[in-house]
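In the previous chapter we treated chains in isolation. Here, by contrast, the input contains two separate entities that must be folded as one system, with a combined length of 450 residues.
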Amino acid sequence: MARAALLGRLTWQLANVVELVEETARVRSIVLDPPAWPGHRAGQHVDVRLTAEDGYQAQRSYSIASAPEDGYLMLTVERLEDGEVSPYLADELRPGDELELRGPVGGYFVWEESLGGPLLLVAGGSGVVPLRAMLCHHRAVESIVPVRLLYSARSLEEVVYRDELMRMAAADQIDIRFTLTREQPEGWQGYGRRIDRELLDEVSWPPGEHPLVYVCGPTGFVEATANALVELGHEPARIRTERFGPTGG
Amino acid sequence: MTPISRGFRGRRDASADPSRVPPGQYVTGDFPVLSAGPTPHTQLADWSFAIQGEVDEPRTWTWDEFRALPSENLTTDIHCVTKWSKLDTVWTGASVDTLLDGVDTSAEYVTAWSDGGYTTNLPLEDLTGGRAWVAFAYDDEPLDPEHGGPARLLVPHLYFWKSAKWVRGLELKLEDEPGFWETYGYHNYGDPWREQRYWGD
């Protein structure tokens, strides 16, 4: 993309809601068809703007879940009970509605093959969303960069993209490990505790291999994970984080 | 003509004075954390603060020297580019005017730099005239590392990414040079009242 185009203003556009996918009881994916999408890189986000009848507006940022190669734009939104925008997106929005957005935004929490690896992705809850875009991009470009995803969720029911990730995990190229912190189904073979130093040591590439690490999740999760990785000897400059706080939504 | 979002009513915060909330922002009571990487944990014994670049003589302060400078308490509103604003936050810090007192420079720009490699750029005039501080306490408590402790820049009239966490120095410059987020698509100046979030805004 030309630099001039990159420097141009990100203008608001109205995207048609093509499809809604209930991922879990609290998480929904929104498939959109923006008329003038300039393309994005895996890990970027968009700004969404809602307007009430009296002109009142609310804006929030949401990670892009779809890969750049997908023919549509997908956002995945977790409903925050005391939120203002996420309950609307998760409950009220219907196919055929239009959603105002602008983007893509952000250029650091981004992975593309030229950045190399080995790649370690660590997700807490709905923090898996931008990492899903990276995994799908990895697959779409048939990358040979070794990749692992460590995904922490409270229970199997709360794992976003569960079937898709299970299918990916069954394939050889992508190594996916789950840890279920509150409730594990009978016969569960994965981990069953919060991510700690020991678990990270077991799952991550050795620090000597200089893995590139992306951590996304709630603030406390990201803080604990990034600190533990630094303690294990990983280079701080190779650890990219994206945090969402108690508010947002 | 802005399209109406069918069925959206919004949750207006009646307690927040609308004249204090910039366009596109919402008021939060929490203090969200946003950082691009791990939180640095610099020991105070290893900490120093520098004024360098286009100055006759660079200056540095140890932590104790820095804390011995006159400090100010202030109550101010802060605005994050990720849309939250927090009103009436309470800080203690040394004014950048104090740090620059007596410095002779022809610089017009500043790059603030931090532990962990973060940088952000500002016009020098936005850091002077009682508009910027190096803050070491929040709500009368030492500043948490997650929020930028031991000390962070505080420039409340610009989006909060300009208030560099873990700040260790100011480099005075003749030419403006984009910092970390300014290189990754965020606005070079970042005035919340003009909603200067991204390049081209």
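Chain B has a mean pLDDT of 95. The two ends of chain B are 19 Å apart (CA to CA). Compare these points with the single-chain example from earlier in the chapter.
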